[in-house]
Each structure stands twice: as structure tokens, then as C-alpha cells.
């Protein structure tokens, strides 16, 4: 199930409903892209037709951000819980370990993907990490060959959005994996080079507030949230 938030499609399901659907796609070999949707991306997509097309054409659009939940509430929609990019990746890895589906990590600074892979092995014993590749290899044919030789079912790409999603869309027809997710800074979080917000902030949907306390320069970006919600309120009144 999907609902539109200011013209962008967003899945209404939670983790437990989404995970079986994703793994079904592996069995049927239906290549699928998972993108994280937050208010910042929705606002950018209004001005950027290419980004809007990219987001709406993805097979899965997860509601990553409390702003998307609030927007759905305003328009009396069905989205009730956040599905964050990093947690979606972790849930997919947990399921992949149980189902013996190999994964591949591509992106990040040299050494980060390997450290992230070590952390995943620690978290999910039995996980098959078919390979890793940092984001600094310039020869794209080498990257594609390395991924294809490893034959993973799931590919996680950490380049920042929308660069990672564009890379996936440009290359997925010639890549072996079935499931693709752009995961931004998730490798850094797993590798321990970037600290995630404490669990209390995560559960309350206040990771943005924790990051704001750590990086006050993010205030300008956070001010976009009330404007986003006002726009949602206006557009839902006009329906």
C-alpha cells in the first residue's frame, strides 16, 4: 500500500510487513530499489523533476522521518510508523542471515565497508557478506565486475542521496543483485566512525533533534519541516 505526500509515493507498511515483500522479490527475481523518504527530499523533489521521477519510480519508498508520519496524520493517511534507512538495512541483514541470502556493501571511505561488514557478522552470525568495495574506485567496470562475481542478492550502496539511487538506476540492469538500497551514512554508523542518536531519541522520533544539538548549523535545514507541514495542511484542505 502507498499514499502520496505532496506528490511523492510513500509505503504505508511497517518493517514486519515490508520485509517479507522484499524477500519475495528475491525469489521472483524482480529487481527493486528501496529509497528513504523524508520531508527534505519531498521538498527538493518539488523543484527537481528528475528527483521526483527517481523517488516515484522506486519499488519501495520507506517513511524515514517523523515529518512524513506527521504529514500522513494531517492528511488522514495510513502511515503510522517510521521505517528508517539504517534500521531497514539492519532488518534486511537480519533476515538475509536467516535465509542465507548473500549481501554486498559498496561505498564509503576505504576500510569503512569492511568494518561495517565485521559489525554485521557480529550482530547476525551466519550472515553471508559476499564482498565489500569502497566508494573511491574510479573504474566503474571494476566495481560492477566485483559485485557480479560475488553474486549477492542484496546490494547496499552508501554514497549519499540521490547520488546512490542514481548510480543504482544507471547500473542495476547489468548487476546481479535483486534488492538495492541506498543507505547514506549507515556504513559509518555500523563501523563506529559516526555515532547514532541514543535509543531514547530514536524511539521518540527525535534523531533530528539530537543531530541538531550536535550540529547547530543544521538549524536552517530543520526549519524546512514546519514549512513542509504547512504545505501538506494546505494541499489536504484543497482536496
UniProtKB/TrEMBL annotation:
Coiled coil: none annotated. GO terms for molecular function: N-acetylglucosaminyldiphosphoundecaprenol N-acetyl-beta-D-mannosaminyltransferase activity. It catalyses: UDP-N-acetyl-alpha-D-mannosamine + N-acetyl-alpha-D-glucosaminyl-di-trans,octa-cis-undecaprenyl diphosphate = N-acetyl-beta-D-mannosaminyl-(1->4)-N-acetyl-alpha-D-glucosaminyl di-trans,octa-cis-undecaprenyl diphosphate + UDP + H(+). Its EC number is 2.4.1.187. Transmembrane segments: none annotated. Pfam families: Glyco_tran_WecG. Pathway: Cell wall biogenesis; teichoic acid biosynthesis. The keyword Transferase applies. NCBIfam families: wecG_tagA_cpsF. PANTHER family: PTHR34136, UDP-N-ACETYL-D-MANNOSAMINURONIC ACID TRANSFERASE. Catalyzes the conversion of GlcNAc-PP-undecaprenol into ManNAc-GlcNAc-PP-undecaprenol, the first committed lipid intermediate in the de novo synthesis of teichoic acid. Belongs to the glycosyltransferase 26 family. TagA/TarA subfamily. This is N-acetylglucosaminyldiphosphoundecaprenol N-acetyl-beta-D-mannosaminyltransferase. The lineage of its organism: Bacteria, Bacillati, Bacillota, Bacilli, Bacillales.
